[in-house]
Write a structure and sequence with these properties.
Elements lengths: L23 H11 L5 E3 L2 E6 L14 H9 L22 H10 L4 E7 L5 E5 L7
Antiparallel strand pairs: 1-2, 3-4
Length: 133
């Protein structure tokens, strides 16, 4: 139910998304070096890597934690020994097998490895250094 007392905001598109990083080296290793996102630094703003050379968000969703746990572990409870993710980031890749091997070789713990989702999508899931699923 929408509260009719609140003013409406006309969102045009998702203008940006990115993790708040605490380990710049680990984050740059994943996003710039492994995923090869065209990230550049801004002179005088040390540590801020950005790009405006990626297409926009194709899918935006509020993903319930129990559904994320189901996708990763096949059950609705998130494991207590893992940080609870605060957001999710999904990228399409040309070759899921190659990407999955690269993540494993880089030392990432895979939470789901080339898992077939009910809607036909094949996914590999892991937590980023910032805890993004």
């Amino acid at each position: 139910m929408h509260d009719t007392l609140l003013p409406e905001i006309d969102v045009l598109f998702v203008a940006g998304f990115g993790p708040i990083v605490t380990d710049q080296t680990a984050s740059a290793r994943l996003y710039r070096d492994l995923l090869r996102l065209p990230l550049e630094s801004i002179e005088g703003y040390d540590g801020y890597l950005h790009t405006a050379r990626l297409d926009g968000v194709k899918h935006f969703a509020l993903w319930p934690l129990d559904k994320a746990a189901q996708s990763c572990f096949g059950k609705s409870e998130w494991p207590k020994e893992l940080p609870v993710p605060q957001s999710w980031l999904e990228v399409d890749v040309a070759d899921i097998e190659k990407a999955t091997r690269a993540l494993e070789q880089a030392g990432y713990r895979l939470l789901a490895r080339m898992r077939q989702e009910p809607w036909g999508q094949t996914v590999t899931r892991f937590l980023s250094p910032e805890g993004i699923l």
